[in-house]
Design brief:
Keywords: Heme, Iron, Membrane, Metal-binding, Monooxygenase, Oxidoreductase, Transmembrane, Transmembrane helix
Number of domains: 1
Largest sheet: 6 strands, mixed
Distance between the termini: 54 Å
Organism: Yinghuangia soli
Shape: globular
Number of strands: 11
Protein name: Cytochrome P450
CATH superfamily: Cytochrome P450
Radius of gyration: 21 Å
Oligomer: single chain
CATH topology: Cytochrome p450
CATH class: Mainly Alpha
Order of helices and strands: EHEEHEHHHEHHHHHHHHEEEEHHEE
Number of helices: 15
InterPro entries: Cyt_P450, Cyt_P450_B, Cyt_P450_CS, Cyt_P450_sf
Helix content: 40-55%
GO molecular function: heme binding; iron ion binding; monooxygenase activity; oxidoreductase activity, acting on paired donors, with incorporation or reduction of molecular oxygen
Strand content: 5-15%
């Protein structure tokens, strides 16, 4: 196929509007594209076919890290941790992780409410304008994951410093990514031996005394901490930032929630549906020849699930561009993925956003953008769409 005829993917990095290409894809829901890595892939954009890919075990996430396969972009983490929840299951750690990320864990919701309130009170005391991403979304997400892991809050900045590189979309391997990975792994290994460590890392460290886990190295155990912090922080912070941005773009919805905060949980599902924070496609490798609509995907080909295409599919969501917090099927969105790789931290992520939004509504009811939306700078070449800064006032 002629290189010039292939559409380049991903599309626009802007998070304030759906890329123009989405509507064009309605007539071609399985389309050949060229990735950042220069490889060819099938971009799947209808809700029905996206669900099919996510739920069919013949489309593998783990195998997207195999040597020689087509890639969306260069890996920034070791290949063996791409399927991290699979690795966790394989070494018997899944139960401990799922317990740790349950928002109903003793004291966790109360802690989130208290910390969110402290952060917002600090913003109010300092006076507007403030950068909501750097001064609220990021520290709120980072502290939450430190608490769950049982590592000092004071160490959050050093761990978070790795994320700007770790989640880059690059055609070639990024030298800084390995340096960060090695440094963060060394940090988590140290936590395994630190008597002050609590939370999930303490539970993981305790497994080393169990003969059933004698085959596990400290590096394998530390991987859980590094990947949990990285993936958890970047996902929750990016979504929260974009959720608040969506609300500020729709002041009528902000007013509805201010008048009736009990609608916040339902609103979070709708905000997840319309949010554009997922800046790439969810990758899967075909393990066999599979028919997707009218297209035959061959074994060994890369398939990318376009979440925003599915979430704005008008055959599933009536008037999909309307932000409707009363929408009956908002929770059918695919923002947490699907199938065996459905995000295990879904409940935690939603509660994290619900509490943050409720706190902002209560303490800064007149919250609004402090700069014209045209002045926002959107991060490029990154797995998440987000504004570099989100200045707000009240």
């Amino acid at each position: 196929m002629d290189v010039e005829t292939l559409t380049e993917f991903p599309f626009s990095w802007r998070g304030d509007r759906l890329p123009d290409e989405i509507e064009e894809l309605r007539a071609e829901p399985v389309k050949r594209v060229r990735t950042i890595a220069g490889d060819e892939a099938w971009l799947v954009s209808s809700y029905e076919l996206c669900r099919q890919v996510l739920e069919d075990p013949r489309f593998s996430l783990k195998d997207t890290s195999a040597p020689g396969v087509p890639r969306q972009y260069a890996l920034t983490i070791p290949p063996e941790v791409v399927n991290n929840m699979g690795n966790i299951t394989g070494v018997g750690l899944r139960k401990a992780v799922l317990k740790a990320i349950n928002p109903k864990s003793e004291g966790l919701e109360d802690w989130m409410r208290q910390y969110a309130a402290e952060l917002v009170d600090g913003l109010v005391a300092s006076g507007s304008p403030v950068d909501l991403r750097q001064q609220f979304s990021n520290p709120y997400s980072e502290a939450l994951h430190c608490r769950i892991l049982g590592v000092p809050f004071a160490d959050a900045p050093r761990l978070a410093a790795s994320l700007d590189i770790a989640f880059m979309n690059s055609a070639c391997p990024v030298t800084g990514a390995k340096l960060n990975w090695d440094r963060d792994m060394a940090y988590m290994v140290e936590r395994l031996d630190d008597p002050a460590t609590t939370g999930l890392m303490a539970e993981i460290a305790a497994l080393r005394a169990d003969p059933d886990y004698a085959h596990l190295t400290d590096e394998m155990l530390a991987t859980v901490g590094v990947t949990f912090f990285g993936a958890g922080v970047i996902s929750t912070s990016a979504f929260l930032t974009m959720a608040v941005f969506s609300l500020l773009q729709h002041p009528e919805v902000w007013a509805q929630l201010r008048e009736d905060p009990s609608r916040i949980p339902g609103a979070v599902d709708e905000l997840l549906r319309v949010n554009l924070s997922i800046g790439d496609g969810l990758p899967r490798l075909a393990l066999d020849d599979v028919k997707l609509g009218d297209v035959l995907v061959r074994k060994g080909e890369l398939v990318l699930v376009l979440v925003e295409g599915a979430n704005f599919d008008e055959t599933v969501f009536d008037d999909p561009h309307l932000v409707d917090i009363g929408r009956a099927n908002s929770s059918a969105h695919l923002s947490f993925g699907g199938g065996q790789h459905y995000c295990p931290a879904t409940a935690l992520g939603k509660k994290h956003a619900e509490i943050a939004i409720a706190t902002l509504l209560e303490r800064t009811p007149k919250l609004r953008l402090a700069v014209p939306v045209e002045q926002l700078v959107w991060r490029t070449g990154f797995m998440k769409r987000m504004p570099e800064r989100l200045h707000v006032m009240w």
